[in-house]
Amino acid sequence: MTPERGVAAAIVVVLYVLLCAATLRGRSKRARASVIESATENGAPAMLVAYASQTGYAEHLARQTAHALERAGVTTRLAALSDLDARELRDTHTALFVVSTYGEGDPPDSALRFVRRTMHDAMDLAHLRYGILALGDRTYANFCGFGRALDAWLNACSAQPLFERVEVDGDDEHALNRWRALVAQTTQVADLSDWQQQPFKPWRLVARQCLNPDGAGRPCWHLELEPSPGEGLPTWQAGDLVQLIVPVDRQRPREYSISSLPADGRIHLLVRHELRADGTPGLASDWLVQGVALGDSVELRVRTNSNFHLGTNATRPLILIGNGTGLAGLRALLKARVSSGERRNWLIYGERNAAHDFYYREEIETWIAQGMLEHADLVFSRDGVQTRYVQDRLREAAAKVHEWLHAGAAVYVCGSLKGMAAGVDAALTEIVGAEMMERLRDEGRYRRDVY
């Protein structure tokens, strides 16, 4: 665990016993773009719907909750947890929190500011009534860790739960239906079923190619999908994801980074054929690379991942760091930068062997030749005498990292949570210090899509 995340996790544990919750005071959309405040025709206080999201799913569900309540006549105010402070919390009387957990019980990156600046202060929140939708993954030991920590913190501060915390494993529709029912009951709304959930639609698998047939590691495949005939191409941004349904496990949609842009005319995916610890193949990857025939249908939908969009970083210098199939998300960002003419791009990417695992080599070398990639550090861990990873390359390039960050660069990290992401976080903290890392997070200049 990195020092930053270790401190955050320790704070959260302490908060279980010591702290009390946050309630919000309305701020207009004009005052803070990230906070959406609905006009109140009758002067009634708005119900706060706050979210903390790592991959955009918690934000998506919070928006669905707020919009469904609005359509039912309940005035709501939508806010990112990172934009709330103690004063706002003290002025809020009813709040719904939709929060995800990152890794082994940690807060999402977007919640660290709230943990650091607000949850360390004890306060009396006896006036606050709240509900929590906690998102998690049961494959991790500390399931819904941050949601549970937030609940315990609010409870310790005498805030009153509207109902028992709802926990969601992945995309569990039964748990989400329970959340809808409890929110409807609490707000005395007859029906909150109108969530405007984007439906899954059939897409045709039109191309599939193994990119490292002779590689030492598990094979990685490039996939291309098109909408069914007569269906239009949806819009998405670099950083967005797809959710797709595996026939043998329809209750748990799988998510993959989109590595293409709408201008490509297709959704591109980069999928590793995974093996579980017991040696059996992963259900989704095995089906995608072996089970689906070319021309067959795959049910999927595009899901926004606003935390990994370029957004306000669109014209900044960009440091893109990743490993393995994390190149998918970085490739989409680079495509967006190339299309907009932004040349200050630095790619630091790691895999096993250059001879076999240099995915999208021709494309990357073309961007280098065109001057669209100012620097490309490709770190192949099994080449050479000493094993090296992307975090090692970062430390070697510490002076350049300082230069780019002080010139306003943003950092995007995509790939494996264990090993790479933690190592990169530790290396960056060593190079620029914890205070600068906090600043990068607060300014939205440090963004991660890791899994």
The rounded distance between the terminal residues' Cα atoms is 15 Å
Which structural category fits the helices and strands?
Answer: alpha/beta
CATH architecture of the largest domain: 3-Layer(aba) Sandwich
Number of domains: 3
Proportion of helical residues:
25-40%
State the main characteristics.
Elongation Factor Tu (Ef-tu), domain 3; 451 residues; 3 domains; Rossmann fold; 33% helix; alpha/beta
Verbal overview:
There is one protein chain. The protein folds into 3 domains: 185 residues, Rossmann fold (3-Layer(aba) Sandwich); 104 residues, Elongation Factor Tu (Ef-tu), domain 3 (Beta Barrel); 143 residues, 3-Layer(aba) Sandwich (Rossmann fold), CATH 3.40.50.80. The N terminus is likely disordered. Helix content is 33%, strand content 24%. The chain is an alpha/beta fold and 451 residues long. The longest helix is centred in the N-terminal third of the chain and has 16 residues.
